[in-house]
Fold Catalase core domain-containing protein.
Amino acid sequence: MILYGDRGIPDGFRFMNGYGSHTYKLVNSIGVAVYCKFHIKSKQGIRNLYAEEALRISCEDPDYAIRDLYKSISRGDFPQWNLMIQVMTFEEAEECEMNPFDLTKVLVFKPS
């Protein structure tokens, strides 16, 4: 969970990535199955708040993140994200040094 991680507190929804915690099994049209993790990467970049600033904002404007997203969309500045997948065959999963189903671990991402 990003909120309780060591990456900082996201400055609203537009400036944060999203990750599927679980590993899913995808099957194509000819029945070949692979494991998959989903990654949603912000095209706006990452922006975080300092703890003091986040505390102040949460007290003064608890709807800050929603309001920021709404205002951005209203002025035509539509936020975008890239959906990426990390695919692993069953054989690669068996040979993996760590458990690919462990929610507390991040698999090393090697783009092909």
Summary: Residues 57 and 101 are 36 Å apart (CA to CA).
